[in-house]
Amino acid sequence: AKGAGRNALVEFEPALAARQAERLVLRHDLRQALAAQQMFVVYQPRVGSHSRQVASVEALLRWRHPDHGLVPPDTFIALAEESGFILELGLWVLRQALQQFALWRADPAVPVRHLSVNLSPVQLADPGFPAALHALVQEFGIRPGELELEVTEGALIQDVDAAVTRLAALRARGVAIALDDFGVGYSAMRYLNRLPFDTLKIDKSFVFAFGVERPALAIATAIVALAKALDKRVVAEGVETPEQADLLQGLGVNELQGYLYGKPQTPAELARSWAGSAPA
Ligand code: C2E
Ligand code: CA
Ligand code: CA
Ligand code: CA
User: Per the database record, which ranges form the EAL domain (predicted)?
Assistant: First the structure.
């Protein structure tokens, strides 16, 4: 067993070194990525759990690196957070998404009525963020309730008092708050009644585990009950099968998001799919 362990270590080291070298390259290239127009925003539809019609979209950032192709957001968002570049990048995403949303809203053939944008904990902690957000909301004429910001709950429990103040400041500007990836990692359960938010997002790992791991459905049931008791809306992500959709609808989940209803797509791709279906 000792021998195998040593071999595993020898094989692992070059891979680790290569990974770290790649991170260094990406960290460097990330700074030019916006100016070089390598970044773009895609939008994933969300449907009402009863109507199964598109009601809203979540904006998701993409980076097409000239040599490495599409870099996973989990990788480059973390790099941008470490360097602080996420402040600029996050505002860029917000501007792009609000601009696109304003176009969609003006078009009666487009069903999108709400927009969700992910917010990094680094952005939430930035004292300048509420004013910058307010300026964008004004510029694009965003009405109360049209924009929702998704924040991962783990980011909120390190300093609950600060989180309460910051989230309240955003909600005071008519922006809704969703707790993203709910139920994974550190849980804000203990503080849930204190946090000002509107929506709970059930993490896709629970949905994937339906019918595979026995507790998954029980946990989802409990999350929905908790959300309802607190008078919050619930969105489930990672919906890939009609069985998952029906289970979630039965639990009382308000909106469904997942590959079953569409992958994250460019506005042009979405326009093609909406042109194919009759307008409501
Ligand atoms: P997230 O906010 O939890 O976004 C949901 C992720 O689940 C997205 O991955 C989406 O493509 C994926 N997904 C949705 N439905 C399904 C499904 O049915 N099956 C499977 N297998 N996956 C599904 P993506 O786009 O790779 O984004 C990963 C994460 O990167 C996001 O997780 C979010 O935490 C972060 N991210 C993406 N864009 C932004 C951004 O503009 N700002 C910030 N701060 N974070 C972002
Ligand atoms: Ca999200
Ligand atoms: Ca999520
Ligand atoms: Ca996530």
Answer: 23-278
